Amino acid sequence: MCGILGYANLNASNNLPRQLLNAALTTLRHRGPDGEGEWMNENVYLGHRRLSIIDLSSAARQPFTSGSGGCHLTYNGEIYNFRSLAADLSLKTQSDTEVLVEGYEKFGVGYFLRLKGIYAFGLVDSRQSKLLLYRDSAGIKPLYYAKVGQEFAFASEIKALRKIFGTKLTTNKRAIESYLKLGYIPEPDTIYNEIAALNPGCLLTLDLKDFSIREMQLFRYSFQYENSFSFNENKEQTDYLLRQAAFRNLVADVNVNLALSGGIDSSLLSYYLRDYGVDKAITIKFGEDAYNEVPTATEFANHLKLSHVVADITDSSQLDLLNKLLFHFDQPFADSSLIPFYFLCREGARHSKVLIGGDGGDEIHNGYLTHRVFPLLSVLQRNWLVKRTSALAMAGHSLLAPHLARFILKYNSLIKTGNRQELLSQLVSWFPASQRQYPILPFIKPFSFQPVFEDSAKTELSDAAYVQAYLFEQRMRSDYLRKADMMSMINGLEYRVPMLDEDLVSFSLTVPSTQKTSLRKSKLMLRSIHSEYFPLPLSNLRKKGFSLPLDTWLGTKALNEIRTNLFNSKGIVKDYIDLEYLNLLFQTLTDKKLQRYSSRESAYQRILILHSLDQWNRNR
To answer: Residues 123, 72: contact at Cβ < 8 Å?
Structure first.
């Protein structure tokens, strides 16, 4: 895994800003501590920071030039099937890098569809005077680009592009509105108008003669088709593809370890990986029992006779660490699980350069409550009798316990939404524009309604497929995968996700939703497979989110500092959020009457969203 950078200037005339580009490449050093390389001609520059995983020799260093001298590549990631692809090529190294560039030279852009792995790359084709960008089909590895006037640049992280373009970048206010709803900025948008994330499976071509840009979608997963196989037939094929994905992800010339939680996905992978020689599992531990997955993970590890490393999370500078991690994202980001993920990767890096995790299993096999709730709410939304009943329930909500009152308030708001897009927006938004979580609304002025998930190709999907598309294409990519990439790479660690193997995903998305989830239980098929290899009680565990007790971890002193900053008259938060509402958020942490509108955990999450926006504004 590496850091990549590229720059082109139509009017460079042998005068590329070399010092500035060197400084931009240095911002990516954490992604590749094992080496640095550069290539350039009169108006194009490629830079690379290397984390050596496959072919550790200097022969595989990048940027890599093809044998003909016609193509030059800077590449981040791994091509897991590179050895089988190499059979069609004449090569000088044992690296997947050479397979990629020589394969393109021989077969053209169609060759990219044969790649299986996690990757993002920039390739200069001097023969055709073109720069090509491409990214893996699930968006596991990041790739950002910007075109400002006669300058074009791309990089693994936004910070490198900020170094190049500086004050030429302007704030994307639409992205801020999306962020306030979701706690992350949905790709392809970023916090800057000039910078975009390349869509997964999308080929971007920059013509180096006239600087024109063309984008072409080479591949995109489909959510429109459900197969007609029985549960057992789909289960057998899923089991086979899971084993194949686990084996494929072991391609490396360094040791590979496993991140083991107390959940179905990572423990199921541990079963397959153990058969291929992976015998070390890493789990992190919190002090509070409600967040501690160590006992269950230990049962999994003991059952498979794995060497089990438990890392106890303690840190004396919690707010300083949180702010450091938020700053690293280069734009507002507020998924609190970034903190335990950072500790997991920090521990993983002490044992090897590669860590395998179970991310993606929930998205392809309906592991979230949203998978179950959204289709039901969509039906209820269209039922007039339900709407009438909800009004009666609303009238008596003040007599209920706080958790029941919260349920009634949210339920009543959701079923009154006008359409499917609005329903999803209200369901997943932390600061929905119309839902009354408190007696007052959060925003100083109402935003014009914009769906959190908008795609004309999704209008014909069933409710179950529609919400799965949202969770896979948007939340996973823009939230969970970005968190995993940033927190692993800040520790110089490659994080692999077999559950997002191309063959496994393509098949799993065709499995009927009724075989994957019911109203009462999630991940029916994965649990059934899991029960073949583990004691049944371990296969029926209730899902825990990968989270931490934010309130106790931060502490009162840190929370008071956050409050002071948010109420600062110069802060960006005041441009969007009503200060009376903000005050209610902080009061909710101790006032049980207000907890009928919002739980303490939800109030903390909203405070984190605003804190991250404030920190970005202070450091930009």
So the answer is: yes
Q: Residue 155: left if φ>0, alpha if ψ -120 to 50, beta else—which one?
A: beta
Tokens of 564: 């002071």
Range from 272-276, 374-378, 486-490, 516-520 carrying the lowest mean pLDDT: 374-378
Which sequence spans correspond to the domains of the chain?
Answer: 3-217, 231-366+487-539
Residue 531 pLDDT greater than 90, yes or no: yes
Query: What are the Cα distances from residue 446, in Å, to 40, 191, 316, 420, 574?
Result: 49, 20, 40, 20, 14
- Intrachain domains 3-217 and 231-366+487-539 with the same fold: no
CA distance 265 to 500: 12
Higher-confidence position of 13 and 58: 58
Q: Is the pLDDT score of 396 beyond 60?
A: no
Q: How wide is the angle at C-alpha 587 spanned by C-alphas 581 and 591, nearest 5°?
A: 130
Residues in the chain: 620
* Half-sphere exposure at residue 32, Cβ-oriented, CA atoms within 13 angstroms: 29
Q: Is 45 helix (H, G, I), strand (E, B) or coil?
A: strand
Q: How many CB atoms lie within 10 A of CB 173?
A: 12
Task: Say how far apart CA 499 and CA 244 lie, in whole Å.
Answer: 10
Rounded-to-integer distance, Cα 616 and Cα 610, Å? 10
The whole-model pTM stands at 0.94
Beta strands in 208-366 (DSSP E): 213-217, 256-259, 280-285, 307-312, 354-356
CATH of domain 231-366+487-539: 3.40.50.620
Strand order in the sheet with 151-155: 35-40, 44-50, 3-9, 151-155, 144-148, 195-197
Q: How far apart are CA 142 and CA 325, in angstroms?
A: 17
CATH class in words for 3-217: alpha beta
The whole-angstrom separation of Cα 348 and Cα 257 is: 8
Chain-wide mean pLDDT for the chain?
89
Residue 332 is predicted with a pLDDT of 98
H helical segments located in 541-599: 550-566, 579-588
> Which pair of structure tokens corresponds to residue 373?
């709730």
Give me the DSSP letters along 482-526.
HHHHHHHHTTT-EEE-GGG-HHHHHHHTTS-HHHH--SS-S-HHH
Band of the pLDDT at 288, cuts 50, 70, 90? Answer: low
The Cα 437–Cα 413 span in angstroms is 9
